[in-house]
Design a protein that fits this description.
- The chain is built from seven helices and five strands.
- The mean pLDDT is about 90.
- The chain is α+β, with helices and mostly antiparallel strands.
- The protein is elongated.
Length: about 190
């Protein structure tokens, strides 16, 4: 699994925990260190033993960085506390349901895909099945207008709409309400209402 985006974001054990799949090998990145430069490669014993001395050279610029390692340790401990993901799920679900309601209210056909911690919005008549469909079917101009309005008014989604909405444990229901208000105002502005 490439867990660079999903690792420690959708569950404490990443996509492997969320989907109940044990991959042979996984990669993780800076989310495990709360933004510090840190990464991890994990896997089953057979695969990981190939990285032993004399078999494959393995090194890195930040390998063993004490500050990053301490940040990862503290971050992982906090994630295991049981406080992080219920908060993210609550706020993310509020956003997903709110955006769905707003787009329905303004008769904009759409699809919201993902999980509360990271989800995408596609304004389209037809559900995308893959990455090609996503780029071909979604009304990116509309999303760019909505997101541009939001940014101008202090809420910071990715302007172009290609990246998902990412949540963290610091986001609150008040943040969700502010985001939804900016999203609805952005829809109105984009539609000229």
């Amino acid at each position: 699994f490439d867990e660079v985006k999903t690792g420690f974001r959708i569950a404490a054990g990443g996509a492997r925990e969320y989907f109940g799949v044990i991959p042979d090998i996984s990669t993780y990145a800076k989310a495990m260190g709360n933004g510090y430069p840190v990464a991890a490669l994990t896997g089953n014993k057979e695969i990981m033993m190939t990285l032993g001395p004399g078999k494959v050279f393995q090194g890195g610029t930040y390998t063993g960085n004490v500050v990053s390692t301490a940040a990862a340790d503290a971050t992982l401990e906090f994630m295991q506390s049981g406080k992080v993901f219920p908060q993210i799920d609550k706020v993310g679900t509020t956003l997903m349901e709110g955006i769905d309601e707003i787009l329905n209210r303004y008769s904009l056909p759409h699809f919201i895909n993902g999980v509360p911690a990271m989800f995408g919005v596609c304004i389209a008549e037809q559900q995308p099945k893959d990455w090609r469909d996503l780029h071909a079917l979604c009304d990116w101009d509309m999303l760019e207008k909505i997101h541009g309005y939001m940014i101008e008014h202090g809420v910071m989604p990715e302007e172009d709409g290609f990246e998902p909405y990412f949540l963290c444990s610091d986001h609150t229901l008040e943040d969700a309400a502010e985001t939804l208000q900016a999203f609805e105002d952005g829809v109105k502005a984009a539609l000229g209402k």
